[in-house]
Amino acid sequence: MAVSSCSFTLSPRVCNPYSSFECRPDPDFSSAPIGDKPRLASSRRVTASSLYAGGISSRGLSSLIFRFPPNFVRQLSIKARRNFSNIGVAQIVAASWSNGPAPDSPSLAAAASAQAAAAAAAAAVTVTVTNDGAAVESCIDNGSVQIGGSDNSTTTFLSSDGSITVHAGERLGRGIVTDAITTPVVNTSAYFFKKTQELIDFKEKRHHSFEYGRYGNPTTVVAEEKISALEGAESTLIMASGMCASTVMLMALVPAGGHMVTTTDCYRKTRMFMENFLPKMGISVTVIDPADVDGLEAALNKNKVSLFFTESPTNPFLRCVDIERVSKLCHSKGALVCIDGTFATPLNQKALALGADLVLHSATKFIGGHNDVLAGCISGPEKLITEIRTLHHILGGTLNPNAAYLIIRGMKTLHLRVQQQNSTALRMAEALEAHPRVRRVYYPGLPSHPEHEIAKQQMTGFGGVVSFEVDGDLMTTIKFVDALKIPYIAPSFGGCESIVDQPAIMSYWDLSQAERRKYGIEDNLVRFSFGVEDFEDLKADVLQALETI
To answer: Which first-to-last residue range defines the signal peptide (predicted)?
Structure first.
């Protein structure tokens, strides 16, 4: 985006530490007579001495400022203050902003002029204004050059997912002008236009703006770009929750009266939406076993299918779909494929590279990773994401920028957490399978898992969640869960803290035992999300709890 810039040359060795100092292209000289207000040319060099020599008071200088950090003086470096002689332009402007309008008395104005003249010898303020008046800044030093603003370069110098989770969307520049290492949180509900002409330019697509908080946010964009880099996607849309992402995606891509296919094992709320709400729009749903490729082909041949949507691995039995195979089959019939990869994480499985059109995550889980934020995201081709984004802008479900910051923060340790969780879960699954008080273990990393070979082909790790059935009934399983000391009894998974739940109670308690069994949910089923605690501690805790039954 073309923008105006403001740069300081403080000294041959000192660079302006405040990259957000920007200048208005059309300052409001309120003290000048109407019709005689000075105007800045499209590109003009303005120094502090020339401003004051031209008779512009400190009020006039203050009106040049478009945005100025409120803690400018407090954070200004000692060296920079020395170069300003402690009486320079920075303090005059900061005082004007902090204490209200500049004084009009001749004596004080003269003192300000003298102070500015003294500072001008050490510092020159350069204002560059472009025709559209938008802003980007640069910090120019004789020894080095730092340029703010967004850099569209790719992350080709990052060779691993671990580095991408740390730096993607940030290291090469972002749409927020700052020299801070961490991405700032931009808390705003709307974005202003300097003049009506700028608004018209925006409406006619000659000027970029989010316009309104529901349509975008600079902090949120950083989170989206980081996820896109990790998934290898053209675009990502992040929303307020995983369910928000799922429901908006389904309504955007499956037309009224259309047909879709899904699998038996999935998150219950997703199933409820497909069973109870999509039919109201005339959308019918075929449900198949995750491994039933023949059933998928039959549904594709019988119906005009718009979308095949499934989790892989699924919740809670961690079934795996052959993503490459089903993608080729669906594409041959003109159907899209969306994979919910929440249990896999973008580190363990690359659904888009395997052929899926879209990949969806509840970012609340492993991506956020700290049990402190709700979010959902969808990644894929720009064309499809734009269709979903258009409906999202209408329905809402916008992610708060503070939540976006927590997602960005969480992703920086994603690879470290997932490595630990992969390792712990696999070792615990093996220990549980060998334990006499455990009937069955569901984990794609075990040879006993029905899709173990598929998982080995399309996953580099098998995730941090293990489901298993203890040798007992509902009350026996409750006794085991209550005897655990480390994990929290809670819904959700994927965080630093281990979490355990009994699906029959946590997710299906409103159904009878017979109704629960229709979905394969037995009373003795346990879902265990392993956190980043030490493996030996977790193992000891699980073993002692099993001994109680």
So the answer is: none
Each residue's pLDDT tens digit, 28-78? 434 444 444 333 333 333 343 343 344 433 334 333 333 444 444 444 433
Distances (CA, A) of 247 to 193, 254, 266, 270, 279: 33, 11, 14, 8, 13
Place of tokens 């349509």: 215
Is 350 annotated as catalytic? no
Residue with tokens 């927020």: 176
Residue from 18, 52, 267, 508 carrying the catalytic annotation: 267
- What domains lie within the chain, and their CATH numbers? 161-413 (3.40.640.10), 414-548 (3.90.1150.10)
**Cis geometry, peptide bond prior to residue 491 (ω within 30 degrees of 0):** no
365 is catalytic: yes
Position 535 confidence tier, pLDDT thresholds 50, 70, 90: very high
State both tokens at 96: 């004007």
Query: Using the 8-state DSSP alphabet, how is residue 277 labeled?
Result: I
Write down the pTM of the prediction: 0.72
SS3 assignment, position 287: strand
Q: Which two tokens stand for residue 125?
A: 């303020």
Of 214, 409, 456, 479, catalytic: 214
Q: Is residue 267 among the annotated active site residues? A: yes
Half-sphere exposure of 517 (CA within 13 A, CB side): 5
Work out whether the CA dihedral 451, 324, 260, 278 comes out positive or negative: positive
Residue pointed to by tokens 């959700």: 492
Element at 67 (helix H, strand E): strand 65-67
> What is the mean pLDDT of the segment spanning 472-489?
97
Q: Pick the catalytic residue: 322, 340, 357, 523?
A: 340
Rounded to an integer, what distance in angstroms lies between the CA atom of residue 489 and that of residue 499? 6
Q: Give residue-wise pLDDT tens across range 129-150.
A: 333 333 333 333 333 323 234 4
Single out the catalytic residue among 365, 389, 417, 527: 365
pLDDT single digits (tens) 491-512: 999 999 999 999 999 999 999 9
